[in-house]
Amino acid sequence: MSGEREMHRRGFLTRGLAAASTALLAGCDELSDPPWVKRVLDSAEELTRVSQRALLSPTALAREYTEADLSPAFKANGSTDPGDPAYKAHAANGFADWKLGIRGLVEQPLELSLAELRAMPARTQITRHDCVEGWSAIGKWTGVRMSAVLDAAVIGPGARYVVLRCADVMDDTTGERYYESLDLVDAYHEQTILAYDMNDQALPVAHGAPLRLRAERQLGY
Ligand SMILES: Nc1nc2c(c(=O)[nH]1)N[C@H]1C(S)=C(S)[C@@H](COP(=O)(O)O)O[C@H]1N2
Ligand SMILES: [Mo]
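Structure tokens for the assembled complex are given below, as produced in the milestone run.
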């Protein structure tokens, strides 16, 4: 992802919130269980996210809507047709051979097919996506909780963030691909899911097939 995009999405929430984040950090010892919560909040780099949490408590749920609230159209934004040849081959094959790789600071690296992900306990949520570019849409998402995937992979004691690496290239000069990161508070949030269905249909390519992170407490994620 581009630095500019990062600034737009994260930067504007931070400004003017230094006082609020200091106040919240002072109260962080109360969040001592589980241990990774303190580890995350101990870091000064976490000020941005802690600032957001000063406004939105860390475990509170984002509002969920009903079927009647579903937006008639959900704008496809960003990369709507990734050009990567390997991605295109997977898409042409209905992602039957595609696998989600979970690696890094985990004790049990995993490769999970879509069928395996669909066999895990599912969560469905109807939520509003708010893009910082100034549009919103309500969609219905079904997928597996990220916590279940992380627990299956057994995150190691040094792990503090989850980085999601995507198929689409964001910077043609460097070839850098789109990525996003979450701290473990957001990763384990009840509504943080890896969605394979959107509005009861398999996720379309324009909306991030085969699997899309929904992090409902974050703008545009
Ligand atoms: N891999 C990838 N994920 C992405 C993007 C992207 O370009 N590539 N765009 C982001 C932005 S800015 C938004 S608003 C939403 C758009 O999701 P949609 O295409 O389903 O509307 O996806 C986010 N995730
Ligand atoms: Mo966005």
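The first strand starts at residue 99 and ends at 102. Residues 74-79, 131, 166, 168, 178, 206-208, 220 surround MTE (ligand 1) (CB under 6 Å). Further analysis is deferred to the final report.
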